[in-house]
Amino acid sequence: MYGCIIKDNQFIKKGKFKMSFSHEEIWEAIYKVAKANGLSASGLAKKAGLNPTTFNKSKRFNKDGRERWPSMESISKVLSVTNTSMEDFSKFFHSK
User: Fold this and answer.
1) Are 92 and 33 in contact (CB under 8 A)?
2) Cβ atoms of 39 and 32 closer than 8 Å
3) CA pair distance 49, 44, nearest whole angstrom
């Protein structure tokens, strides 16, 4: 996916691009991508071919309270259908 790997919760791209992110930041970045494309979270999920509830806030944690992270497959589909590069996606992590 865009020549990136994940290691210790960091995206690494060809040794040049590296960033850390939290559970909350990755979820917020997904919501920001949706908003930037005029979509709700469920609209983004549908457009990406995912279940419309994939990005619901209620899905951020498992029933036992553990964090639930979106899969790389889901993120990849979101980036593909919104024509968003991994580098552009990363800009949503720390933006307001």
Assistant:
1) yes
2) no
3) 9
Cα gap 25→19, rounded to integer Å = 12
pLDDT for 5-54, tens place per residue? 444 545 445 455 555 778 898 999 999 999 999 999 999 999 999 999 99
Report if pTM > 0.85: no
70: Cβ–Cβ under 8 A, 6 or more apart, which residues? 26, 27, 30, 54, 55
DSSP 3-68: TEEEETTEEEETTTEEEE--HHHHHHHHHHHHHHTT--HHHHHHHTTS-TTTT-GGGSB-TTS-B-
Per-residue DSSP letter, 67: B
